[in-house]
Write a structure and sequence with these properties.
Layout lengths: L9 H14 L12 H8 L3 H14 L2 E4 L3 E4 L4 E4 L6 H9 L4 E11 L2 H7 L6 E11 L2 E11 L17 H7 L5 E12 L2 H7 L6 E11 L4 E10 L3 E4 L14
Parallel strand pairs: 3-10
Antiparallel strand pairs: 1-2, 4-5, 5-6, 6-9, 7-8, 8-9
Helix pairs in contact: 1-3
């Protein structure tokens, strides 16, 4: 229950209680949770405090509102293993059983900027194939992905049928004969720009995760750079490291 002597704000304590009930199955996806008045009465809180807790849970995607009807439990977020070498589409199908479809936004051949050239280890101004897609399923739009592949690695890649929903990762493996030896990645929280928000079907400034990763060939040469803008309200990033991983060993 709530502790009014705790340094943790009451709205945050209530937020954690509601989240715990959702994760524990007390309320199921799509189920209407108690109204603001009912929560005020149960926890002896002001309406402002309850509303602040609910708004936080709506912002993070645990709840959603229906105008004039209150808050409902949202569907579980799509989990993506950030350590997986496979692409998001393959991971979703193999692990979650979800069929993600692709909406092709654009395919261009651009000249590598200084930053892009450094990441891909190519001369500045080199031709790079830029492929921009939106990934979604019946649950909604999940993320916007922009992939950069040096033209020298895959001649004619810009002429492929990228609108058919196939995996670019699989195409580079099967047609161009590349094999992935390692992946480097990094991510950070961001707020969506107007362009990104329009594609992701959210409001401008909505919370999202920017996830970039570079896949390397067996020759330790960067093959492709992918930049994902992932909706924070319906996706989550996961990872697993076991005891055999050298990163688990204590350092001096």
């Amino acid at each position: 229950m709530l502790d009014d002597r705790s340094p943790v704000p009451l709205y945050y304590q209530l937020q954690e209680i509601i989240r715990s009930r959702i994760e524990g199955g007390h309320w199921q996806p799509g189920e209407h949770i108690p109204t603001e008045n009912e929560l005020c009465k149960e926890f002896n809180l002001s309406k402002g405090t309850v509303r602040q807790a609910l708004s936080s849970l709506v912002s993070e995607g645990a709840l959603y509102r229906r105008r004039g009807m209150g808050c409902y439990v949202a569907n579980p977020k799509m989990a993506q293993d950030i350590l997986s070498i496979a692409g998001f589409t393959a991971y979703a199908k193999q692990t979650l059983g979800w069929e993600l479809t692709s909406e092709l936004i654009a395919v261009n051949v651009i000249q590598a900027s200084t930053a892009l050239a450094e990441k891909l280890r190519i001369p500045q101004g080199s031709d790079v194939v830029e492929i921009r897609k939106v990934k979604h399923s019946e649950k909604g739009v999940f993320f916007l992905v922009t992939t950069y592949v040096p033209s020298v690695n895959s001649p004619g890649l810009e002429l492929e049928d990228h609108a058919n929903g196939g995996s670019l990762f699989k195409l580079l493996q099967e047609k161009y004969g590349f094999h992935i030896a390692k992946v480097n990645g990094w991510f950070e929280p961001v707020l969506t720009s107007e362009y990104e928000a329009n594609l992701l079907k959210v409001e401008k400034g909505s919370p999202a995760m920017m996830f970039e990763r570079i896949r390397y060939t067996t020759a330790d040469r960067p093959l492709m750079l992918s930049k994902h803008i992932i909706r924070g309200d319906i996706c989550r990033l996961t990872f697993e490291i076991n005891s055999h991983d050298p990163r688990m060993k204590p350092r001096d």
